[in-house]
Amino acid sequence: MSWSLVNNFLGGFNNAYYSNYALGLGRNQGTGAYSIGQSFGDSVSFAQGLLEIASGVITGTGGVAISSTGVGAVVGLPATAVGVGLAAHGSSLVGTSIYNFSRSAQIGEGKDFTTGQKREIIG
After folding, report:
1. Cα separation of 100 and 29, whole Å?
2. Where are the domains of the chain?
3. What pTM was computed for the model?
């Protein structure tokens, strides 16, 4: 396997992963290994977004529970705010990842490897 394929894959992964944080800003279009790397980057950022949503819900719920004691509001209110923010960021990350991944699937990215590149990947 050539290092150029690995480099293109990692470049696409990084582009997708970090552009999903910026709601798709800076997203580049690529072909071959680059676009496959983008699909993997979208998948990883999707999973991370789901974890952020779950963490945000748990943190926010805990904050509400602590705040209900009255004295615990000093800690509970900031925890609730952090939980809401975390869940909101996770939601935007999931939404952007789904959009970009489905857009890539519609365009058919990653299907345009040359015969030589296919042989090089297979070995």
Report:
1. 11
2. 3-23+30-110
3. 0.80
